[in-house]
């Protein structure tokens, strides 16, 4: 899935605010998603916003931990979206 590859690269972007907006736009492509997927997307976007806050306030000291958390949340979104897609195919 190219969407997830692009979002993953946004986690490392220098401009966190622009990355949040682009990730949000990309994730809107998942129409009629399940409640679990909706919550996972919300959690991922919240973690991405937290990453932006950490970088702005504390510099690069804690960003690795925040990026790791964002990637884990993105993995959850990816798994849930694959589950929704496979359920639609049945």
Write a structural description.
α1 (about 1-10) packs antiparallel against α2 (about 15-25). By secondary structure, the protein is mainly α. Helices cover about 80% and strands about 0% of the residues. The mean pLDDT is about 85.
As a percent range, the share of helical residues equals over 70%
Q: What composes the largest sheet?
A: none
Structural Rg? 13 Å
User: Stretches where pLDDT falls below 50 for ≥5 residues?
Assistant: none
Give the mean pLDDT: 84
Give me a quick take on this structure.
The protein is mainly alpha-helical and 90 residues long. It is 81% helix and 0% strand.
Layout of helices and strands, plus pairs?
Blueprint: H1 2-11, H2 16-27, H3 35-58, H4 63-89
Helix pairs in contact: 1-2, 1-4, 2-3, 3-4
List keywords for this structure.
single chain; about 90 residues; mainly alpha; about 80% helix; elongated
